[in-house]
Amino acid sequence: MSSELAQKAKIMDQEGIRRAVTRIAHEIIERNKGTDNLALIGIRRRGVPLALRLAGKIKDIEGKEVPVGILDITLYRDDLATRAQHPLVRKTEVPFSVDGKKIVLVDDVMFTGRTIRAALDAVIDLGRPKIIQLAVLVDRGHRELPIRADYVGKNVPTSRREAVSVRLLETDNGEEVVIEEKET
Amino acid sequence: MRILIKGGRIIDPVENKDKTLDVLIENGKISALEKKLAADGAVTVDASGLLVAPGLIDMHVHLREPGYEAKETIETGLKAAVRGGFTGVACMPNTNPVADNQTVIKYIIDRASALGLARVWPIGALTRGSRGEQLTEMADLKNAGAAALSDDGRPVAGSGIMRRAMQYARMVGLTVISHCEDPELAAGGSMNEGFISTRLGLKGIPGAAEEVMVARDIILSELTGCPLHIAHVSTRGSVRLVREAKARGLKVTAEATPHHFTLTDAAVEGYNTSTKVNPPLRGEADVAAIKEGLADGTIDVIATDHAPHTMEEKDVEYDSAPFGLVGLETAVGLVWRELVRPGILTPAEAVAKMTVNPARLLGIEKDTLRPGAVADITIIDPSLEETVDPLSFASKGRNTPFAGWKLKGLPVLTMVGGKIVYSHAGIKIL
Amino acid sequence: MGLKNKDLLGIEHFSPEEILLVLDTAASMKEIIGRQIKKVPTLRGKTVVNVFYEPSTRTRTSFELAAKYLSADSINISASGSSVVKGESLRDTSATIAALGADVVVLRHPMAGAPVLVAGQVKAAVINAGDGAHEHPTQALLDMYTVRDKKGALEGLKIAIVGDILHSRVARSDIWGFTRMGARVRVCGPSTMLPPGLENMGVEVFHRMEEALSGADVIIMLRIQLERQQQGLFPSVREYARLFGLNSEKLALAKPGALVMHPGPINRGVEIATEVAYGVQAVINEQVTNGLAVRMALLYLLAGGVAQ
């Protein structure tokens, strides 16, 4: 699995990411007609800083606090049975009831849709939200499940041989989205 | 039939001989022992580079027959004996029925002599059924061929009955062999009591369980005048008690087993039930003391306590497994590994502890290579190295803690009464 | 990063990294226990077989529940309801369990080393749920979890373990675990119930409870089996309770806010006074909840197999 990655193209820089987050924040407010009953849940790892940034923008725009939760989907993955060793589990921290809420799931990259499928199951195990929406920074295509995002920072057509890497200041060195080629 | 053993190094502790000589065997006896013997038409054994010793004797084995033939029979036990270089063994009476009467003793002797493998000297029980209550008919046992008396495996707990047994045994003229174990101190234990038993969570048997009985039996030997032989000495304290008894001139002798001078209780780690033996494998200080006792003569005899069990019996939880391990087919290799090569014993001293010393205790005379003597001979190749493979054992027992060990210094030919009963594939016989 | 071995047989051979991995994973699992719907689909299709050769309500139900919360199928085999009473050997029983396709075998056995025998026999992961006086690793992990949860860290803490150390698998596993994590462990009990060589395990040995408790951050009281009196290991329950029972006066010798722990079930009024067992410093019920989280963590970490 440890194939080398060679950077091919930078598709978003720090400014681009900022603008995308700002736009998504506006779209969320607009679509939900404000922030009533709204809550954001970031998917570990990079969905978490993105959710916090969105909450910050929403507060800037609307002046209202939106609660943010953290979801670890490891226990809901559909590939556990096929893995030689189970991946590390981290804590799910959703400090509010999801019952009746408008939940916006937040992740960095949307690819096959399997992560989102797991996240949907995880959220539903926490209770019964009124609606679940999905916000992603990048949608790179190649869906394997009938799932689509409600809010997309950027649609990026890719080939399966390519990898899309999101780097955020909170979790990585730097702030950018790049396409890398898997050298096998 | 004439057999000529050529070019071997003769080790004869009785004659105090250690030199290269040829041995001619005729009509089951040694007929000549000289340099450069020639014998037309004789079968010739090329023994150059090999040690030629009087036939080894193991004075402590369990042949299990009658009664426990699934563990071992007299036949498989004796095949194991000759493969291990032993021309004779003394077998313990804890059979079923117990060898506490002349019928069982005679059965064992008849069965063994019909087989024509190694010689067998049965040991009679000290008390009826080895229950520690009533004396056996010791005179009858002796007449039937018992070479000594012991309640090995079910040690005599009561001091009163032990005293009377020793008084009576002395009158009859038989040595008492004592498996020294205080049943209360040892109760429920599976291994040596110490740090390892604490770590493994197994109930320990303290060294004191052996030592209090060694002390008691030495005192009773002094009281009764009965010759006492301490079986399988396992602790430093026991060695010290025997040493003191000998210094005071008491008729006390002792034996040690290869496993007790080779392994410590660290071998129990992993719960391999082949390490479960009674007395248990002890600590490093105990192993060192046993080696010292062997070197200074405190311990007279090396004996195996060969105790075969079936796979089903041993393939269980450590606490559930019976005590005992098989020793006949690894004894010589371990003696060479632990005692001879490190220089603790000379080859002649080691051979003495497996020939003349046990022979004297048992009242046997087949212990020398003197011309005229019965031709019981063991040939040892000090440089032959093999890996211990329990599946290749002649014994039914596979319960050895030495599986996979490389042992160097192995028996290659065993001769009983002038007949070759075992020879290694590598030895040249023309 | 994962556990090094296929099985969990004891804490003795567990590294600090492995202990931390289990504790951290358990912290994630504890969140699930707090939910209204206490179930995740993680171990769907996996089979956990609980084999109990000794009666045990706590440990067995804890493992059973842990398996259920993770959606594994679990079955229980107890000595009284199986071919065990018909004389089937442990080896044959494990062969049967292997043939059933178990992914994890949880074994409680009265004899030390029994899990080692089974582990060598089956491809499934074997979790030792207590073997004789040897080890009870999941109890030690839940004890460490509880202490870390309450005290923030384990390093440098003074842990006093009091009671029948000789027969206690909990004591052995706790000693290995806490010392490995940098805590300082003291053991205290009657001289007839302290096994030889304890000092070699890196602990201080005491006979006077007052000394052992002085300045302690954590007190782990062990259950005294009352039949040990018949075996001549202590003269009377009365004297045992006086010398080695924990009451509020003795507790006052420990650090303020010291935790009182007990693996259960408790002989109230013998090794622990009622006012202490129900007092503010007791975390005995939390130990039970944490035990569930720790066992979920272990099932999760071991059911996936071990990387080569």
Automatic annotation (TrEMBL), chain A:
InterPro entries: PRTase-like (IPR029057), PRTase_dom (IPR000836), PyrR (IPR023050), PyrR_bifunctional (IPR050137)
Protein keywords: Glycosyltransferase, RNA-binding, Transcription, Transcription regulation, Transcription termination, Transferase
Gene Ontology biological process terms from the UniProt entry: DNA-templated transcription termination
Family: Belongs to the purine/pyrimidine phosphoribosyltransferase family. PyrR subfamily.
Limits of the Phosphoribosyltransferase domain: 11-166
Organism per entry: Desulfocucumis palustris
Main EC class the enzyme belongs to: transferase
GO molecular function, one term: uracil phosphoribosyltransferase activity
Gene name of the record: pyrR
Protein name, per record: Bifunctional protein PyrR
From TrEMBL, chain B:
Gene3D superfamilies membership: Metal-dependent hydrolases (3.20.20.140), Urease, subunit C, domain 1 (2.30.40.10)
Cofactors: Zn(2+)
Pathway of action: Pyrimidine metabolism; UMP biosynthesis via de novo pathway; (S)-dihydroorotate from bicarbonate: step 3/3
Taxonomy, superkingdom: Bacteria
EC main group: hydrolase
Binding site for Zn(2+) 1: H60, H62, D152, D305
Keywords in alphabetical order: Hydrolase, Metal-binding, Pyrimidine biosynthesis, Zinc
Reaction catalyzed: (S)-dihydroorotate + H2O = N-carbamoyl-L-aspartate + H(+)
InterPro entries reported for this sequence: Amidohydro_3 (IPR013108), DHOase (IPR004722), DHOase/Allantoinase_Hydrolase (IPR050138), DHOase_cat (IPR024403), Dihydroorotase_CS (IPR002195), Metal-dep_hydrolase_composite (IPR011059), Metal_Hydrolase (IPR032466)
E.C. numbers: 3.5.2.3
Annotated catalytic residues: D305
Pfam families (UniProt xref): Amidohydro_3 (PF07969), DHOase (PF12890)
Function statement: Catalyzes the reversible cyclization of carbamoyl aspartate to dihydroorotate.
Family designation: Belongs to the metallo-dependent hydrolases superfamily. DHOase family. Class I DHOase subfamily.
Name of the protein in question: Dihydroorotase
The species this protein was found in: Desulfocucumis palustris
Organism placement in taxonomy: Bacteria, Bacillati, Bacillota, Clostridia, Eubacteriales
Gene name tied to this protein: pyrC
UniProtKB/TrEMBL annotation, chain C:
Catalytic activity of the protein: carbamoyl phosphate + L-aspartate = N-carbamoyl-L-aspartate + phosphate + H(+)
GO molecular function, one term: aspartate carbamoyltransferase activity
Record-listed carbamoyl phosphate binding positions: R58, T59, R108, H136, Q139, G264, P265
Domain Aspartate/ornithine carbamoyltransferase Asp/Orn-binding: 155-302
UniProt KW Transferase keyword: yes
InterPro entries linked to this entry: Asp/Orn_carbamoyltranf_P-bd, Asp/Orn_carbamoylTrfase, Asp/Orn_carbamoylTrfase_sf, Asp_carbamoyltransf, Asp_carbamoyltransf_Asp/Orn-bd
Binding site for L-aspartate: K86, R169, R223
Associated pathway: Pyrimidine metabolism; UMP biosynthesis via de novo pathway; (S)-dihydroorotate from bicarbonate: step 2/3
GO-annotated biological processes: 'de novo' pyrimidine nucleobase biosynthetic process; 'de novo' UMP biosynthetic process; amino acid metabolic process
Domain Aspartate/ornithine carbamoyltransferase carbamoyl-P binding per the UniProt entry, residue ranges: 6-148
Enzyme Commission number, as recorded: 2.1.3.2
Keywords assigned by UniProt, alphabetized: Pyrimidine biosynthesis, Transferase
CC terms in the record's Gene Ontology section: cytosol
Family according to the record: Belongs to the aspartate/ornithine carbamoyltransferase superfamily. ATCase family.
Quaternary structure (record): Heterododecamer (2C3:3R2) of six catalytic PyrB chains organized as two trimers (C3), and six regulatory PyrI chains organized as three dimers (R2).
PANTHER family: ASPARTATE CARBAMOYLTRANSFERASE, ORNITHINE CARBAMOYLTRANSFERASE, MITOCHONDRIAL
Task of the protein: Catalyzes the condensation of carbamoyl phosphate and aspartate to form carbamoyl aspartate and inorganic phosphate, the committed step in the de novo pyrimidine nucleotide biosynthesis pathway.
Protein name in the entry: Aspartate carbamoyltransferase
Source organism (scientific name): Desulfocucumis palustris
